[in-house]
Amino acid sequence: MARYTGAVCRLCRREGQKLFLKGDRCYTDKCAITRRSYAPGQHGASKKKLSNYGLQLREKQKAKRIYGILEKQFRTYYERAEKMRGMSGENLLKLLELRLDNVAFRLGYGASRNEARQLVTHGHFLVNGKRVDIASYKVSVNDVISVSEKSRATEKFKVFAENPKTLPKWLSANPENFEATVIAEPAREDIDVPVNETLIVELYSK
Question: Which residues are paired to 113 by β-bridges?
Answer without folding.
Answer: none
